[in-house]
């Protein structure tokens, strides 16, 4: 049975509809990422699960128990949903020490004094801050504050933990470390985690399941591999990875393949429109790492004019021009001015 | 906070506000006192006051003239001082700045007594000048003097708003103007001051409004030449016709509120506009003061002269006079020094009670008031409901009532309501009136601290498992504790200073220094008045000391 089920969830602020009917189910013990641009409704969805926002329509069930259901007028207040929540700003209470911050949820649950002491210590050690219990939040670094916020949300062992962009206030290096230890921690505890982020690489690194949102709607839900390798829509394909988006003309479609022209050059691609008609103004999307630099003409190869290069350290990113469209690719080779040939493998060139 | 509790708090507050006001409006349409059963509904009191009573017309006109005049003095002077003290390299500005706000903390009757004692026809400074030049080149009891003094004593109000707006303005906008080739004066006139225009406009309306509320200054300074303003007219009306004419007083009160309420409403709108304006300010990075070169010295001279006339001369003369056995032409200062007046003060039980009551109402009462303001604020805190808008507007009503009027309305309410009657001659009636008069001010003090709490701190409490009441107790209140203590100190000073609210509630048991000063002045007991004023000043000094100790920089 899924841990968390969301059905046809709508939410509006005044006349603006922020969530326009979200359906999703999250499996027990999985790490789910709500991914989307700002304004996509991902944080609102998370806050609705926590009970901090009130949807106008739909239902949310945890372990089969409705915590929100517009039809039967069920709307449990946040304190009765028994969830852990990590805020983007961490929201540590500045007037309490680290231990007191972590202990609060246990205290509210009527835990004994010794029980609180042991669990708080264990939670702080779990996030690697065992020695800092007597400090105040203002005496901690940003990374340490984030760990306290996570310990505070986990200490009373909620079945589901919600995290609202918990890594966005960390610097780049810390963020990459944090991804790894947060995922490891959640997996060790075996709880379900819902994680909001706008950073696709973060989502790919941390999630078992990614839910891609845009404009208050669910675009695609699946494993990171599914989202990266088999995006369902043009939006999903462009959102993930770094891409070349090309204007192509469709000549014919057959058996899941599409024959297109880029300028006057013919190319085979994978048809992602589910049997649409031939159209002049289709979009071809290919990830920049899928485009290969080759020595000469051949199947699915096109000639391009060299424009410029960027040195990335481990490789080069080259920019070419094909007619009035530009094409980027990654290569270990240095390239000079002039005409070159590139290959776009048919299974990696998606036609929408 | 549970919803039912929130609604209950809003309703109680609404009752507290609308009860007294409603009673006054009701009385204004009666033919006789509200407690007389044969009073009938009529508009005759309005007809009399508005169309037949010449004193009322004069008072209204005087109020308008004084309000315009003092605004014309206070606004330019306040803006100029704000610019000089905040934006330029004026010498000694760190010492001068806190002094500029002093007139706001001294009760205006006390300041008025100070002016009489120093600059009146037999004032200490007047006689000294007369000894030097043979005559006194000014006359304190004229309308011009009144306007001038009212203008000078309201400079701090303008300064406060203009300086805080200037402070939040980044110096980058000024530096941009300098780089474009503008000199310091041009920068002030074309960049800095226009950018804080909304704040200046707000301060202008505020001072104009305070002009209509004026009571202490015209009571003391306008009396010898019978210059009446609205508030003093109301005060005199009690005695004018021999018997208290409830209907006429009510009409005057309604007329005053009719003028002040739109002004308060305008202020509210302007304040909202001012804060919107600040959102488009320059980046408030490190501010570099503007060098004004040789202009520093005349500028400093101007500010010192203002401080001297408005603060130093009246306060010093008042304190000095309280230690003089008597004063008049040919009396020397040194051989007359005495503490007899203070000993005399202790022989009057009502004056001693007044001092004790003032202390009680300022400390315990102030704490209770702040608790009440905090309770109302918490009830409205993070509540998306139309009720909050209702209370938002209701709070404007007591703001539009000068203390004298609120005191009168509260007095009537205690007479009118059977269950309240036993409390009329207790400090409770006075405390309730004080709390009501300063409701808007106190609410703002407390809400300023509440606004600094990020909503996620409270949400974190909710998701951790705390009910709304537990969040208020465990998170919100501890976080605003320092703000509440700061508010209490400011309310302490405000309650010590207050003089007009207690005037109508003055009875054995409810004496406070302020209302005693007003009634003692009428009897001409200058020795006692100056001694009691000195006690009042000392208490305010204690409050200000506390404020500095707490590092509290927030004001009105």
TrEMBL record, chain A:
An example Gene Ontology molecular-function term: ATP binding
Cross-referenced SUPFAM superfamilies: MOP-like (SSF50331), P-loop containing nucleoside triphosphate hydrolases (SSF52540)
Signal peptide: none
InterPro entries reported in the protein's UniProt record: AAA+_ATPase (IPR003593), ABC_SmlMolc_Importer (IPR050093), ABC_transporter-like_ATP-bd (IPR003439), ABC_transporter-like_CS (IPR017871), ABC_transpr_FbpC (IPR015853), Mo/tungstate-bd_C_term_dom (IPR008995), P-loop_NTPase (IPR027417)
Residues covered by the ABC transporter domain: 4-240
Keywords: ATP-binding, Cell membrane, Ion transport, Iron, Iron transport, Membrane, Nucleotide-binding, Transport
One Pfam family this sequence matches: ABC_tran
Family, similarity comment: Belongs to the ABC transporter superfamily.
Protein name: Iron(III) transport system ATP-binding protein
Origin species: Methylobacterium goesingense
Automatic annotation (TrEMBL), chain B:
Keyword Membrane: yes
Keyword Transport part of the UniProt annotation: yes
ABC transmembrane type-1 domain segment(s): 60-267, 355-550
Membrane topology recorded in Swiss-Prot or TrEMBL: Multi-pass membrane protein
Pfam families: BPD_transp_1
PROSITE patterns recorded: ABC_TM1
Transmembrane spans: 59-86, 98-125, 145-166, 187-209, 246-265, 299-320, 355-380, 400-420, 475-496, 528-550
Record's keyword terms, sorted: Cell inner membrane, Cell membrane, Membrane, Transmembrane, Transmembrane helix, Transport
Subcellular location: Cell inner membrane; Cell membrane
Domain of life: Bacteria
Family named by the database record: Belongs to the binding-protein-dependent transport system permease family.
Protein name: Iron(III) transport system permease protein
UniProt source species: Methylobacterium goesingense
